[in-house]
Amino acid sequence: MPPAPVPPDARPEHCVRAVEDLLGSLATQLASASAVVAAELPRDDGVAPTAQEVLTVAQAPTREVLDDPRVLGAGFVAHPDLAVDATYLLAWWQGEQRDRITESAALSRSVDYRTKEWFTAPLDSGAAHVTGPYVDYVCTDEVVVTVTTPVVAPDRVLGVMGADVLADTVERELGGVFAAAGTCLVNARDRVVVAGPARVFAGDALGPEDREGTRLRCGDLPLWVVVCAWPGGRERS
Amino acid sequence: MDDVRRLGARTRSAVFAPIGDVGRAAGVERRLAEAIRSGILTDGERLPSESDLATRLGVATVTAREALVGLRSRGLVTTVRGRGGGSFVVGPRHDDDAELRRWLGSMTRVELVDRGTLYSANLAGCAELAAERAVPDDVRELRAVLATVDDDPGGRAPVDVGAWRHVDIELHLALAALTASARLSRAMMRLEADFGVLLRLPFGSDAHRTRVRRHQVAVVDAVETGDAEAARARIRRRVREALEDLAELGAAVS
């Protein structure tokens, strides 16, 4: 799917819409996948599921998220207390072939993902979260943007549903409209996700002077379109 | 070939230093290919004979021959038979910036800044160590590298952009060599191939060249006074500025 055409008179509102089309719709899909997993995972007898049961439950709802070729990988990440026979459990599929990430590949780096922003933030807020761009060591070793939604049962936390999009892909999809509007997309940590002006790069931190300006929130996502005060570049003195 | 384009002995001897056990033919080929792409070995230059190459790299003659066959098939060297013959470097056409611009235009800024950050962090580390380690003779050599081209904005002579690019490579590899780490120096050579050609694409602009020259002089000054922090910061700024100029160029192309 090619990026939507950029209107020549693009305004910040167009940027908001483009973000909602790409990341907002992904968050919506993940939220419905989360609901499926949350409904099917707890067993009636109250016994903790096995890793294999978790994989089986997570696979079908994940497949729909993976239908979008812009998604690099997606799946369900279990809370360490969830499965009876696994601590760190990734039901995650990625790449062209949508192969499952094996335990050994991801966990040989002994990554305890309980402290990761993409894991904690949606569980803390109870809503979709967007992390990055950041270097993801757990699955891809690439610079990615990750959307995650909480998966919770009435009495406990089960994990998160998530999807990775390459930062490269995000730029190819959204860069045009942000460049035309002269705006940047920033995340909850005030870091640039998509840079409109040429002299700003994704990953740059927003300076104090830029936090004052106009910003538009992208729906319910913790992402804001800001009108940049630094088109001349950030690190020049 | 004009003298300005000749590289310093240190850089060149790194290219021909013993390659060890890990390399063999593929290693020889890779090292020479990187040197050709990054401009350390220049277009039209004659490579040492197979047996000389083998001796200097510390590999068997048959290994050197195999590497040359590989380079030939990649179009990076050409072999002329008979008297006065030998293997000659076929350098990238740096005058053909159009090719580089197309590459830049097809690249996302995420990728550009990714390459640039790796380059910048390595080179900044080199500059920091160079500032801690350099003795006055080293500084003299660095200044001699810079002196091979003149900053003469608005001057009458046409600017030799290739020579400017060459001096910049030479300076960066000399900073790497001052760390006395062969691995770090080889890493910088690989990064020259990965990003160096892009870094120096904006050299056609007078304003860009003038700014780069200021940074080059400031880095050497910092090395001279042993100010590692200033050397590091200057390299970071020099690369960031180039990234910003490149992003503007890229936006104009795509």
From TrEMBL, chain A:
**Which domain of life does the UniProt lineage start with?**
Bacteria
One Pfam family named in its UniProt record: MCP-like_PDC_1
Know the name of this protein? Cache domain-containing protein
From TrEMBL, chain B:
> Per its UniProt record, what Pfam families does this chain match?
FCD (PF07729), GntR (PF00392)
- Residues in HTH gntR-type domain copies: 22-92
Q: Record's PROSITE patterns?
A: HTH_GNTR
Is Transcription regulation among the key words of this record?
yes
* SUPFAM superfamilies the UniProt entry points to: GntR ligand-binding domain-like (SSF48008), Winged helix' DNA-binding domain (SSF46785)
Keyword Transit peptide carried by entry:
no
Sorted UniProt keywords: DNA-binding, Transcription, Transcription regulation
The UniProt entry, under PANTHER family, shows:
GLUCONATE OPERON TRANSCRIPTIONAL REPRESSOR (PTHR43537:SF24), TRANSCRIPTIONAL REGULATOR, GNTR FAMILY (PTHR43537)
Q: What is this protein called?
A: FCD domain-containing protein
